Write the structure tokens for this entry.
Amino acid sequence: MQNHASLQPESAVRRALKHPFAGFLLIGLLLLSLQVLSILGVDFVKSSMLNGFASVMVYSIVGYGFTFLLGYAGLASLGTAGFVGLGAYIAGYLIREQPQVPYLGVILGAVLVSVVLGVAVGFISLRIEGIFLAIVTLGLSEIFYQIFNNWLGFTNGSMGSSISKYPIFQFFQNEGNWLSALNADWFARVSEVPLLKAVFDMKTLDARRSFYILLVVITVGLMMLTYNLGKSSTGRAMLAMKNSSSAAQAMGISLLKYRLLAFLMSTIFAGFAGVMFMSYFKFSTPTNYTIIFSLNILAAVLIGGSKNLVGTFLGCLIVFGLTPIFLQDIPFFRDNSWVINVTIGTIIILIVMFYPGGLVQLGQKLKQAIHRLTAKRRLYKYGEDD
Amino acid sequence: MAKTTDPRYFGDKAAAKQRRKLFEQIERLESEIRLAQETVTLQGSLLEQRRGRKLGLRRANMLRPLDRLRLKLASPEEAANEQLADRLPALKKRQRLAYRLLRQNLRRKEGLLDKAGRLKDGQQALSAAALKELEALETAHKLEQSSLYNSLLENAKARLLPQAERETGMSRYRQGVDDMEGRLKRMEARQLEKDTKSLAAFEKRQLEKVKRYNARLKDKQAKLRESESQAEHHLPEDVILRLDGLSMTFGGLKAVDNLSFDVKHGEIFGLIGPNGAGKTTVFNCITQFYKPTAGSILYRTREGNVLRLNNYEVHKIITKGIVRTFQNVEVIGELSILENLLIAAHPQYNSSLWQQIFNTRKVRQEEQVIRQRALQVLEYCGLSAIRDLPPVGQPYGVLKRIELARTLMAGANLIILDEPAAGLNDQETIELTRLIRRIQKDYDATIFLVEHNMGLVMDLCDNICAISFGKKLAYGTPGEIQNDQLVQDAYLGTSEAQLQEVTA
């Protein structure tokens, strides 16, 4: 009898879980299900919690760009806040003052400005390295902060810039628009399905919820694209550059090209995230974009393991998400809000101290620990095998 | 030899730029052509693999009902035995666990175990009663096994077809098998036809691409020849690298001083000199890590074009077929050994950034082809067993071999080795020497090395140049160098007067 065991297909679920995108999609599904639960009226999911997750998503987008800069290219920047703020203020200005500009134009504008600045900083990074580069970018960020505070016509100063409507859905809400007609028809058909009725009912589906869903899609999509680039020859070239710049050059890797690219990635992602922030929260003040924010992003990426995108997301969840999502609802933390920062700080210190490889390393260690524990339990119960 | 100020070597700047551009375009076209050709072979083997897997699965699925029929037809003992073979291992495993559990409990009861469940030292014997209990369990297990066999046998007997139907069953089974084989064969033929067709279409597409590229390539090469006659870089046919009056100064220090020598095609060339003689600086000048202060470096590519290397950026040198290794090995610790080789193949990737971001088919094909190349090189260097490990923590000899594999991966024409034997023990040095010789022969590469291990240099090199304080002392075969008075002085020390004579 021939043995066909080796030819038996792996179970489909197992194979799907092994796919590198599985983690990203799982995160996306979890985030989506929270919104769905909230629409269905589950008390546990509060709107502050959803906003918390939305901000984590926005910041994680910044994190993916920063992952490339720090984890792959090995360059440190403390100017992230400035670029995010720039994206947010450009979006705020264009949407508020220039309503004729379509939303895609807003995104494009913010990204273009980020590209120009990214190239400029990239050129600086060719001359300066390490801690000095961090200081230079820190200075740049401080310049941006002053601009945000004082250029009243553009940013509305310390009062903060705000917009009144969700820009992307204006198009759909216009009466007489062919798309809105199509939309209504589609929604009408969908709402006949009992469960989907609750989800997609036009009355309950307000613009904020729609934008949340859009944000989930964007986050997961960007994770996939970033992952692709990281696994490609570009990602490897950057890693080579980080590990040994002379070997990289000898192997035909242009430092100029890949440093510029790394900076471009980080600034484009930051600018785009700024637009997303403004679009979701509709409000932004200069105090959002201080050095603290840049350091938080750095911490989030480091905690995540600096090369792993799921790790970056979790790092952002710890740094930016713990307060609005979990801790705020605990009475003790609500009454003593200063303890929150102390707690998060302690968590960060513990992770960095004991798991310098970040959450990725923590995950591996946990797996090993579980293996060890089961082995121990087996020994206790059955004795040594002979 | 011409002087460094000879205007011929500097030529027309615009023309030089044009030439560089032409080279780049040609390299890209050639790499695309190679990729297209290799993709076709890879696609063929891929389709074959997929076909085999698919047919195997089909066969397994089709055999299942036939097997049932076969069991009904076989003698009851045979059928039972076959089923037993399927089910016995699981049963035995379960029984073994039960046995261990009982034994553990008995031992615990008698206080033979420590807290973690291990046997205490020196107390291993169970009491007679406990042993009896264990024995009883074992006999019970044996009984269970035989009862399983009996029940299987009974089942088989019950299922056994009556004699009258056996004949028809037999013929049905044979018919089924024949049917299956026939269907599989037809399926295979169909699939083969489909695959062949798709492969042919694929090949045609790729060949068209190659043709297109070739036409463009010819055009570019014609332009290149034209520009070459203008550039007037002259090298004798058998010389692959010529240093012509090379000088490199750092501030006031002359690290290399008007150094000239030729490296011939296909030889192993050694550059020796005492510490601080400027050997590594020479390497860095050739690979353009340092831009020479004066002098020319002329180089003949595999295709026979003569280039003035001074005109090229450091990361373009590898595309001309010059690959170097480093004095203190520079492998990428964050990547696996295989990926370290892929780094060396970096200029061979042609897909654009957008294609990489969206991981298009072209990117995946390219990755497959280049990975295949890397696997071959790893096999050649004897590294394929550890290809997925990170290089960190590997012995020094392995790291050196990874660096050598990298030079091969890059398709080197001229391999520059910076102290290949530094930090190796004798055994590793011998292995490395062998590998270097093998590479020189199999890959038709010229090897240019700096080394302090005189045994290795004298053993390996065809020609040697000795330098001291950036100046040439002697050039010749190992024998000539060994007997050279100046070289001996430089290594063994000289009188003050002689030293002044050398450095002046």
Notes: Chain A has 19 helices and two strands. Chain A touches chain B through 40 residues (CB under 8 Å).
